[in-house]
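Protein details
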Amino acid sequence: AGYTEIETYGYGAGKYFGLTVKDFAAHAASLGLKSPSGHYMPPKFLWGTEEEGMAELKDLIETAVTMQHEYLVVPYLPAEKRTALDDYKKIAAKLNIAGEQCKKAGIQLAYHNHDFEFKDYSGTTGYDILTGETDAGLVKFELDLYWVVFAGKDPQQLFEKLKGRVPMWHVKDMDKADRTKQTEVGNGSIDFKAIFKFAKLSGMKHFYVEQENNY
């Protein structure tokens, strides 16, 4: 199909799909695939005790290094953990700490959005907090273009606000008949040609074609 890069998800209990991380990395390499980034959920680090959290983060960073990722991406926030702006402030503070630990290991922390980060709280959004209260050198952003459009936001405006801080995109199209569904890129309603004109402004280095509800 011509793909040379993949973004991983599915790490748990020290393994990827039943394989050790080392074996999974070797298998991907044998197929000519590089993995610039991976999605890793750190619930103990974000909401647990400091001891548990730092142990979890250490394991995820070691996994990312073994996979030769450039980026370790935090992919999601459970609904009960993001009910107010104060929740986002606490998460932003944690992301700065994780970003520092990633930097020490030679990789970069990033955060991947859905639509809920753009919920308005009296003129401010969770995304405003996550982008404004994290260190620009320690925390980058992976912009999911479908979810940005779904939330009624303009990717160009976010690129202008975050100049150079969005090294990764998820390229995922919106079904023309049902905007809650996704479709093959090019068959939907999102104008990717227009968005890709701002690749340099955003700092984009990698993009991933994604389709979730394609069953």
